Amino acid sequence: MAVIVKKLPDPWLALGLAAHFIGGREPFSRFPAGDLIRTLNGQVRRGHYLFALDTAAEPARVVGYLGWALYDNDVADRFIATGVPPADEPATEGDVAWILTAAALDRAAFFAMTKAARRLYPDHRVIAIRHKAGGKRVRFDQSRARVKAKRSGAKTG
Known about the structure:
157 residues, alpha+beta, Aminopeptidase, 6-stranded mixed β-sheet, 5 helices, 38% helix
């Protein structure tokens, strides 16, 4: 498999491929279709998405999708505390890259997308909440201080 990570030039194609790929995978397959499409549409419209494509296949096939929103720290902290996502409108700028949608067929595709996204937002705090079986939520919160420390080789607690 030869994986490349990119955005697609046609937003309608991007939305269709994202819906097809994400909609068949847990936990997204359990989401109401309207909510899922609205989320994906916002990501594509804002340019906050990446696909991992296997170019060894002809035609290339989707092997991963990553979509996010940008929030300021106060909005992101409220989101974490309440679990209620903010309105879509303010998701275009801020110091926090919130990963809303992530799925990949394998680890290589997933890590290729996350590395590409990190290059887009090297100094942003990155947050994600993973919904696991049984309703358990696992939070990932990488602060800017940890990012800077990691780059400088310093240890963080």
